[in-house]
Amino acid sequence: MDEFLFAPVIAKEWSHRDIAEDVFDIDDLLDAHEIIATRAENERRAHEAARLQQERGMLG
Fold it and tell me: CA-to-CA distance for 19 and 35, rounded, in angstroms?
């Protein structure tokens, strides 16, 4: 549970103080997880696109 709860803190979206002071509710926590997952997927796609572009440059 702690890993799930503190994921936004680890991702630097929230601070530890936000958790301790109950600044966010469970809906906010779920939204933060969705944002973190979306950001990770976008970064993965960007790296993949850059890799493919680089490979095409080497071939042409």
Answer: 17
Which of 56, 4, 54 shows the shortest CA–CA distance to 30? 4
For residue 58, the model assigns a pLDDT of: 78
Task: Count Cβ atoms below 10 Å from residue 10 Cβ, excluding itself.
Answer: 10
Residues 3-59 have pLDDT tens digits of: 999 999 999 999 999 999 999 999 999 999 999 999 999 999 999 999 999 998 876
Q: Which two tokens stand for residue 59?
A: 């071939």
Q: Cβ contacts of residue 29 below 8 Å, gap of 6+?
A: 4, 5, 8
- Rounded distance between C-alpha atoms, residue 4 and residue 29, angstroms: 9
Tokens at 31, concatenated: 């939204």
